[in-house]
Amino acid sequence: MEEKRDNRFKWQMLEMKDGITTSNGNWYHITRDGINQYIPGLLQKYTLERIIKEADAWIKSPDALSMYVYLILAFAGTGPLMAAVVAILFYPFWYFNISAFTTPLLSGMIKILQHDGVIYVSCGAAFIYFSFIGNLDLMWVGLGLFFLFKVGLLRLGLRFLGSKMKKSGLDLPDRVLNMLLIRYGMKEGKLTGDIEEMRDRLIHIANLHKQKK
Q: Could you tell me how far CA 180 lies from the centroid of its own chain?
């Protein structure tokens, strides 16, 4: 069992015999040894902590990106209610399709955009501006969305819904990590087989670890 902590961001990762869990509440049903079997040699180039932290950032991204959608629409002149509706509809679209967009090339940007400090500064500046120009509706609706996304009620509801309707055999954290591993493997030329076969192999590994929990 091994624990890694990033003091600056207060992010923690705990390796256990049947998987990896993080301080963001995500559980990955694969171990360091499992990843080495899945894509041999990958962890010699990239640390496990880096890969798991990137996966966590992607999983957390709906909260931040949906808020940015609202702010962009608000600054573009869209009314507060319409902007809020679009932002709320964007949330489940992105949540259920994260793995399709997950790529190491964008991980750095995603980590920055969903960082609490960046979100607080962006939203704070926007709300002050809305108040300054006298558009209090944009400010109050934005504040409501901010707390809705930050509390995580939408994420919890969608996680429950996703657990009932998932077809791939993998939970969201495992799907995101799977795509991240595959695209890292493609980038480094370390894929050992057909992508579908690899996905089936990860499902098998994940199910084995679930049975041990």
A: 11
**CA-to-CA dists, residue 167 to 164, 174, 175, 205, 206, angstroms:** 9, 13, 11, 17, 15
19-22 β-sheet, strand order: 2-6, 11-16, 19-22, 27-28
CB 158 within 8 A of CB 96: yes
Q: Are 15 and 31 in contact (CB under 8 A)?
A: yes
The beta strand positions in 59-109, using DSSP E, are none
Residue length, the chain? Answer: 213
Residue 180 and residue 141: Cα distance in Å, rounded? 35
Residue in the block written with tokens 């966590």: 56
In 3D, which of 140, 139, 116 has the Cα closest to residue 24? 116
What tokens were used for 68?
Answer: 């940015």
Q: What does each C-alpha distance from 146 to 76, 102, 155, 157, 191 come to in angstroms? A: 19, 24, 13, 17, 40
pLDDT in tens, 111-155: 999 888 999 999 999 999 999 999 999 999 999 999 999 887 788
Beta-carbon contacts of residue 98 (< 8 Å; ≥ 6 apart): 58, 59, 61, 62, 172, 175, 176
Q: What are 104-123's pLDDT values in tens digits?
A: 999 999 999 988 899 999 99
